[in-house]
Specification:
The protein has about 100 residues and is mainly alpha-helical. Helices cover about 100% and strands about 0% of the residues.
């Protein structure tokens, strides 16, 4: 009977050792999964930062293009005003010439 008890204890110890190894393996897998998730999180943070930088650059380019377009529009208006004034002068000169 003592031999049976010893064998039973050995089997129980082997079962506990197996359970412990399984639990430790699960823990190790969870630790690895958490580390991978942190790595992915850091990678996503870098990607978001990169995309924000691109967006800021694009916004700055758009603002610059808008300012350039505003300048070009103002120059076009001035040119049209000068052309209108030149047309008025030319019409006045023609009218004066006809009157003579």
């Amino acid at each position: 009977q003592r031999a049976e008890e010893d064998e039973s204890q050995k089997l129980s110890l082997a079962s506990l050792t197996t359970d412990k190894a399984r639990v430790e393996g699960e823990r190790d897998r969870h630790v690895a999964a958490e580390a991978a998730a942190r790595g992915e999180g850091a990678q996503l943070t870098l990607e978001v930062s990169r995309l924000k930088g691109l967006l800021l650059h694009a916004e700055a380019k758009a603002e610059n293009a808008e300012a350039t377009a505003g300048t070009a529009l103002a120059e076009a208006r001035r040119a049209r005003e000068e052309a209108d004034a030149a047309a008025v002068r030319a019409n006045a000169a023609l009218a004066t010439e006809r009157a003579l």
